[in-house]
Amino acid sequence: MADLNPIRLWRQLLSQPNESRAKTLAVAFLVSTLCAVMVTAATVVLRPIQVQNRAMEQQTRLEGLLSEIPGLKDLLGSSEEMTLSTVVVDLRRARAAKDVTPETLESALADSRNWTPLTPQEDIANLGSRADLKQIYLLRGPGNEVGLVVLPVSGTGYGGPIEAMIAIGADMSRVAGLAVLSHNETPGLGGRISEPAWRQQFTDKSIRDSTGGVRLAVARGRATTEFEVDAITGATRTNNAITRMLQFWLGPNGYGPLLDAIGRGDF
Amino acid sequence: MKLWAQVTDPILHQNPVTLQILGICSALAVTTTLAAALTMSAALTAVIIAASGIISLIRTHLPSSIRLIVQIIIVASLVIVVDQFLQAFFYEMSQRLSVFVSLIATNCVVLGRTESFALHNRPLPAMADALGNGLGYSAVLIILGTMRELFGRGTIMDIPVLPTIEQGGWFEPMNLMLLAPSAFFLLGGLVWAIRSWRTEQVEKLEYKLAPAEEPRR
């Protein structure tokens, strides 16, 4: 009869020659199990703190973006009536989403019906599929008119996803500011997209030309038109990623229809 | 006493970066500021000590056919733990170091020490050796980080030391110092300085160059 005493089995295993097949497999299995437990424990225990960190980071970036927009500080300071509100919008209908609040947004996005798959021609920002529900920020003036919208945008850069926020002025045709929330671009090259000196070039750039096509872009080299900003040297793929991200999200498959609706005064 | 030598030797005599020229990639990438260099040094030292300890503990039962992959799994898992820890408690710094913390897994200093030392020695000497090599690596990173931050930004640990022109001082920041090539120059200079002081570290020529061609008659 086989001996099932675990301690004796363990000793037996250890006494086997190192090169035996059973021991090789056992060592490989035990090491990977222990490592898996260690990694899982670390991620599970630390996740709540990391989520909190990320949320705080987003909040500070949003505040930073708003404070950078020229003139806005005075506006916010001079009148008490400028209010920042958070709205969930439905991009399929280009208006505020029904029954979805910022609190329930996450669970709504777990439902695949709230995502639109993109065809390769549409998917210039390399996203795969687009969330139909987006949380945007509206800054309203004293007469409840929209003074500024802040839109979250995302794209795929050289080193991974890029998340950013773009603020657009009251006439919905000019950029008020751009903030990069997270990216994995090469430090010192593409990573410079988060530097204020580069981001602030976007302020006051025109978004669309007279035909309605989105022209806002990172130039190849120096900016020459009112739609372009200077490129970052040595980071072609990052520059292109930013251009494609902006053109997708401000175009017909992104916030384009919504910007038209806000421009008409539907909000 | 032997343990002490194992800790101090790799700092100058056997420095993993300047003598063995290992771990150069991260030494270039994370030394733009002293704070980043310090964080990276601490992360690498923690990983190399833990990895050496664990590998030394199981060394007598490690089949040599799978020893390399077992070492890499252990090192990589420890790196993930350290990375998660940084993301939780030093969020801003982990954002700045981005991918380079994860790349400790491929750092030759770590695998080099576990393979050549921890695999053949008891846990205590193995960990002492790991600590020494971690400190040796850290020393180089700290020197590079200090110089690059001082001449690239005029600050040390974000405290202004050389008043820059932007702030109304006289110091014109050297932008080259913030780019990767400057770390190559500084590292080369450091290796040259150490080898001209400690001439025993100079590598012997493996062969002599012969004249290109004998003149034909």
From TrEMBL, chain A:
Q: Name one GO molecular function term.
A: oxidoreductase activity, acting on NAD(P)H, quinone or similar compound as acceptor
SMART domains linked: FMN_bind
Read off the InterPro entries from this record.
FMN-bd (IPR007329), NqrC (IPR010204)
Q: What cellular-component terms does GO give this entry?
A: membrane
**Which controlled-vocabulary keywords does the entry list?**
Cell inner membrane, Cell membrane, Flavoprotein, FMN, Ion transport, Membrane, NAD, Phosphoprotein, Sodium, Sodium transport, Translocase, Transmembrane, Transmembrane helix, Transport, Ubiquinone
Q: Where is the FMN-binding domain?
A: 157-253
Cross-referenced PANTHER family: NA(+)-TRANSLOCATING NADH-QUINONE REDUCTASE SUBUNIT C
- Protein name in the entry: Na+-transporting NADH:ubiquinone oxidoreductase subunit C
Instruction: Name the source organism.
Output: Microvirga guangxiensis
Q: What is the lineage of its organism?
A: Bacteria, Pseudomonadati, Pseudomonadota, Alphaproteobacteria, Hyphomicrobiales
Automatic annotation (TrEMBL), chain B:
Main location class? membrane
Localization, per the record, is: Endomembrane system
What are the recorded Gene Ontology BP terms?
sodium ion transport
Protein's membrane topology: Multi-pass membrane protein
**MF (Gene Ontology):** oxidoreductase activity, acting on NAD(P)H, quinone or similar compound as acceptor
Identify the InterPro entries for this entry: NqrD (IPR011292), NqrDE/RnfAE (IPR003667)
Q: Which residues cross the membrane?
A: 34-56, 68-91, 97-114, 176-194
Is Cell membrane given among the entry's keywords? yes
State the UniProt keywords alphabetically: Cell inner membrane, Cell membrane, Ion transport, Membrane, NAD, Sodium, Sodium transport, Translocase, Transmembrane, Transmembrane helix, Transport, Ubiquinone
The record's listing under Pfam families reads: Rnf-Nqr
User: What's a single GO CC term here?
Assistant: endomembrane system
- State if Transport is listed as a keyword: yes
Protein name as it appears in the record:
Na+-transporting NADH:ubiquinone oxidoreductase subunit D
Species for this entry = Microvirga guangxiensis
